[in-house]
Amino acid sequence: MSSPLLSVANITKTFPGGVVALDEVSMDFHPGEFTVILGENGAGKSTLVKIMYGIYTPDKGSIILKGREVEIKSSLDAIKKGIVMVSQIPQLVDRLTVVENISLSLTRIGMFETMTRVRRFFKEVSEKIGIKVNPDAKVWSLTYTQKQLIEITRAILLDAMVLILDEALTYLPMEERRKFYVYLNEFKEKGRSVILITHKIPEALEIADKIYVLRRGKLVGALDKASANIDKIRDLMFGEAAKTITYERFTKPYETPIGDIVLNIRNLVVEGDYGEIAVNNVSLSVRAGEIIGIAGVVGNGQRELLEAIVGLRRVREGRVIIDNHDVTNKGVKLTRESGVGFIPDQPLRYAVSADNNIVENVAALFSRKNFVVNWKSMRELSEKLINEYGIYPPRPEMHVKLLSGGNIMKTVVSRELEYASKALVAYNPTRGLDEATSTFVRRKMKEKAVNSKLAVLFASEDLDEVLQLSDSLYVMNRGVLYGPFDPVSTPRSKIEELMVV
Q1: CB 370 within 8 A of CB 8
Q2: Residue 254 — φ and ψ, nearest 5°?
């Protein structure tokens, strides 16, 4: 085997409060290999790649690039050394065109390419992958898939030797992901290295040449393609909790009659961030005890729809009625006081205060009507949620900004499910959560819908989640809602086709 293109040796990283994110972790990434890093929430995956990308500095250990130890001081430094990362959320300037975004990135590192060459190269890549994009289109007008194409094209033009994909393709439909994988295989065959972080073990098994497994900051497994299988990986990641993972539909004992309409959405028209029509004449209703799921690729109006329902975004036309009360354009305060839980697309923007601890974030919601906070009660509730949902580290006084992305999501989901009494509105309720936690959260959502007659409306880019959890489902594409569909009898291929047409 050839020498590693990139290695990390004995990397250790501890955050304030004594949280050990990485403990003596060593990995090798070879040219021509597709390496996947797996691990439960808080395992240290994102911390490790952020060290490789110059966002974090390790407390101990070294990074070796092409046989020489290097210090990576920033993401710009990483890019100049040939290490480029593409994240789950595209890092683009929405008001600029495709070509302008790519050219701006090249200029930042001292590469000056003509607009004509950038436009030509982008067209070549998009044609090869099979995703058509106008290189002169404004980025805000593009789909999520098209934005990720821009990111990957930019990485190639930046002359990446090591390409890190941090959940960048996980929530694309299978057909779209495979288009990217064909192109990425060509990339690695040129002697480059691809590193993928994902929570989807089947995705890892499909494309990985090598798999590393982290657990609580330690490297617990290194598997090659021949020795890896789903049961072995789950056992390394979760131990006994692996037995709880399921993608089967929740049926008995969850079958129960549904009640009256709680959420009633009528002919809703909502504008996007740039004045475009993001939600186009959408109507649907959700009854007590019922779960309605909306499938779709990100950027097709799901976020705007849910934000309008809870009062975060203004409705241009139509009505939002919650429990027979018209709450259209009356603000989020009234919606929340109606007993509606909300899991947003951007938890750090709309759900939690990063500079406050877990207890304070719980108290902010449960004590919103009170002038005096019962801190003893709020601490007890926080401890209950921490234990029930496995929030790590299990410290109520831990500031949210020190938690991993997955544990921030657990904090939000646990609080909102506990708070919701009439309805729950959620966007990607398990995004960033590992398989075991995702199964647990979906089961909790189903149990609360049934036992507390909660009306649940959620949108997710994870089609498996929509199919497992929904009593009835819709597909949203370019602001239009298609459906309803029966998740049992409707072919998966029909749903995926509607997601990408």
Answers
A1: no
A2: -90, 0
Give the pLDDT of the chain (501 residues) as one tens digit per residue.
679 999 999 999 998 777 889 999 999 999 999 999 999 888 899 899 999 999 999 999 999 999 999 999 999 999 999 999 988 778 889 889 999 988 888 776 677 677 888 888 888 888 887 777 888 999 988 877 788 888 888 888 888 899 999 888 776 777 778 888 888 888 899 999 999 998 778 888 988 999 999 998 999 999 998 899 999 999 999 988 888 888 888 875 566 678 899 999 999 999 998 889 999 999 999 999 999 999 998 889 999 999 999 999 999 999 999 999 999 999 999 999 999 999 998 788 889 999 999 999 999 998 866 778 899 999 999 999 999 999 988 899 999 988 888 889 999 999 999 999 999 999 999 987 888 999 999 999 999 999 999 999 999 988 999 999 999 999 999 999 999 999 999 999 999 999 987
Task: Reduce the DSSP state of residue 317 to 3 states and report it.
Answer: strand
Give the residue among 280, 201, 291, 224 at the shortest CA–CA distance from 255. 291
Residue 480 phi, psi dihedral angles, 5° rounding: -100, 140
Name, in order, each residue with C-beta under 8 angstroms of 20's C-beta and a sequence gap of 6 or more.
Answer: 12, 13, 14, 217
Contact between residue 424 and residue 457 where contact means Cβ atoms under 8 Å apart: yes
Domain architecture of the chain: domains with CATH: 6-242 (3.40.50.300), 261-500 (3.40.50.300)
Burial class (CB in 10 A: 0-12, 13-18, 19+), 218: middle
Burial class of residue 275 (count of CB atoms within 10 Å of its CB; 0-12, 13-18, 19+): exposed
Mutual angle of helices 435-451 and 405-419, in 10-degree steps: 10
Residues 419-430, buried b or exposed e (16+ Cβ, 10 A)?
A: bbebbbbbbbbb
Token digits for 66?
């092409």
- Which DSSP category does 428 fall into? S
Rounded to whole angstroms, how far apart are CA atoms 33 and 192?
A: 7
414 Cβ contact partners less than 8 Å away, ≥ 6 residues apart = 385, 388, 389, 391
Cα end-to-end span (Å), the chain? 43
